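Students often ask why we bother encoding 3D structure as a string. The short answer is that it lets us treat folding as translation between two languages. Here is a chain of 404 residues written in the first language.
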Amino acid sequence: MENDQSTTSVSPLALGGAITGILVLIVSIIYLFFRSSSSSKTDETKTESYIKPEIDRKKPTTKSTTSKPIKQDTKLTTKFIHPWLCTSLRAHSNSVIGLNFSHNDKYLASVAENDSVLLWPTKEFDGKEHKHTRVNIEFDQANHVVFSPDGKAFLINLLKDNIIRVYKFEKRADGLITNAHAVLDFPKKNGSPIVAIGIACTGKFIISAEVNNKIVVFDTKGDVLDTVETHQGHLNYAAVSPCGRFFGSSGFMSDVRFFEVCFEKSNGNFKEIRKIFDLKGHNAQVLCFSLNKDSTRAATISKDNTWKLWNTDVDYIHKQDPKYIENVHSETIRVLIMDSTGKYVVSAGDRQIRVFHNIAGLKGLIDDLTEKAHTAKQLTLKERIKEQINDARSKMNNILNGAS
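And here it is in the second language, the structure alphabet:
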């Protein structure tokens, strides 16, 4: 019995060693656990410390995020490039709807939707900066503008009142226009909204064309000389030729119709208005048109997204029809004009105004001179025509090659 009890009893020393071993194991496990956790947190902290500065370096401020990248993208998407482009005029806050050159081609007037009238000196078109004069229209807005023949005033159409208003202005020593102020309102004679106004370089008549096919012809005092029904569905545009002899209209039909304003040779009194010729060739309604100084060339833009250059140097008395020279452009635009010399073609369809070198006009001039050279009999005349051809080709090549 004593032997059995002695074999089954546990020694205190062995029990103490076992307990000590268990405690060491538990402590080791706890140590390893916390060490692993601490190491993991340290690694995460290090990772965050390495990543966060990188993120901070890459992350721009709120202003740069909302302005710089957007502006750069906008410039990339809206930048217009064309070999004939001279410059783009930027100052309007809304889409440009009206353009007009002064009769001496020293100024360009522009109007935009819900905006002021801007007057630009054309001598700065070839430069980088483009100064202008802003004329605010009180309690109304203008949707059309034309210069007077003497270059001392301009006319606008007031959208709300649907009348013509005359502004006079002065010029500074540097040529910039200043002190523009209203001096006269024409009586209201148009029943529907006016789509265009114009004034003859002779000062003999002024037109206001309304959307309902009617064109009212005034004298410079505001008295009505006559009215014309154009029968074009509705009118989009009308303008007086730079030569001051006739005016044209375009509308729902795909042609442009021109009418001559006739005066008595003896006393200069008004005589009659008669239709003289049409421009036919577009596949949709014509939105706008313009003629050069002597009315031998015309440019038209259509809803078919093209604009054409026309030879209008025809004998319309004997029913000779004009023919177009070239299809020139295929961007959507709302306004198109030429200066009187035919040097520039200016278009607008958004807030910017595009000033083009008239390359198509130079091509047409070269073709005309080449034909004259073939028929010229005198040697001196042929040589003079060849010099003109070479000069026109040189101008065209300089423009297309980017020369100043």
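Translate back mentally: The CA atoms of residues 63 and 69 lie 10 Å apart. Keep this in mind for the problem set.
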